[in-house]
Amino acid sequence: xxxxxxxxxxxxxxxxxxxxxxxxxxxxxxxxxxxxxxxxxxxxxxxxxxxxxxxxxxxxxxxxxxxxxxxxxxxxxxxxxxxxxxxxxxxxxxxxxxxxxxxxxxxxxxxxxxxxxxxxxxxxxxxxxxxxxxxxxxxxxxxxxxxxxxxxxxxxxxxxxxxxxxxxxxxxxxxxxxxxxxxxxxxxxxxxxxxxxxxxxxxxxxxxxxxxxxxxxxxxxxxxxxxxxxxxxxxxxxxxxxxxxxxxxxxxxxxxxxxxxxxxxxxxxxxxxxxxxxxxxxxxxxxxxxxxxxxxxxxxxxxxxxxxxxxxxxxxxxxxxxxxxxxxxxxxxxxxxxxxxxxxxxxxxxxxxxxxxxxxxxxxxxxxxxxxxxxxxxxxxxxxxxxxxxxxxxxxxxxxxxxxxxxxxxxxxxxxxxxxxxxxxxxxxxxxxxxxxxxxxxxxxxxxxxxxxxxxxxxxxxxxxxxxxxxxxxxxxxxxxxxxxxxxxxxxxxxxxxxxxxxxxxxxxxxx
Length: 512
Hints:
Blueprint: H1 2-45, H2 47-50, H3 64-69, H4 86-91, H5 107-118, H6 145-148, H7 174-185, H8 196-208, H9 214-222, H10 228-237, H11 240-253, H12 271-283, H13 288-297, H14 306-315, H15 317-320, H16 331-351, H17 370-381, E1 383-384, E2 397-399, H18 403-432, H19 435-457, E3 464-466, E4 469-470, E5 476-479, E6 487-491, H20 497-500
Antiparallel strand pairs: 1-4, 2-3, 5-6
């Protein structure tokens, strides 16, 4: 009986071994295919961004379980079903997310991955990967009463100046009254008045950044009129030095420079026009709200003379100047980086807010959400700041002349574009030909190069300025973790909720 059992066990073991061997034999070609064509491809093309050290979009591709688990957009592969596998659509660049972003895989490489998924995505010795923690999807953020009542988000009010009844010094204006009231709370008062020589030096340095001349000091010392100080201040406010000194303060805030200051560090040859506009605006005592509005949307403000329209166009140089990576290989990343730099500057310069923090997540301190950020970003996405986003990118410039000169410039630009296209077509055709055909095409290619050079040289003499212009209005989707390759919900163009209030309708599609 024991021998019979032993024989039965041996027979069962033999049968199982045969079945297992047959299964192994049938799976081996798929495993060989994976080891030779798929695993090396994943290591070379994908591990840098989706491996054990970094997981963009929450996705890892270094194990079968990780691919089945997927990332922010869900499972990456469905074993045996390539058409339902997000990974294949991503590699084929036929959806919103395109991987690798810079260079699409060859058809043969995509076919290899497709065949592997069709075979059930075998991955020998693949260890299970711990799932990435996924935060529950939250609804719209509600701001606390404290955030809503914060002083920076309240409308500007004109407070009543305190009454000072026992002042021992003359009070010239309400600012003196506010200052003295606070000083009195601390048991203090104003410092003694400066002597006249010290006073003219202080006020001249303050308003122009330069010392007064000897003649100016002598004239002020001898002026006994009651309004001598007022006349001194008015003279300094009317001097060009006033706009140069205080305009520079704004230029520092607006990150003014004469080059992009980063990778290529190319010269902004027309940036000086924006600099001079700022100085002129200060000297003209331009109202602050108008000063800000012209820099953000001067190209859209109607009316005025040719000179006034040119000034408003120049003002939008505020959005074009500044540090910009002009040799970024990924055009969309370059575009979003430029928008981020614009928003960050606008937030800090005008609003006193660090808007840039909300590019990747809801702001940790200020009542600003990622949705707020991408609503504003959509406005700048719909604004043309750059002519091109290819390496090396070029910034947008516009003619300052009247309609006739601008039309001549547009005709010239069209001629240059046609010449470039013709040359590019001829060069591609020459490169694809036989050695004999390449030699025969050489004179024609040289002729087209000469024509392009002549077209570029014939550019009309039109003054240009760094400026933005309106583009097609478009909304953006929230970029998860700030990555333009992993997109969330659409965030219509509108203003931040903390400022606009609960009733905050999106900007209509036909508006800038």
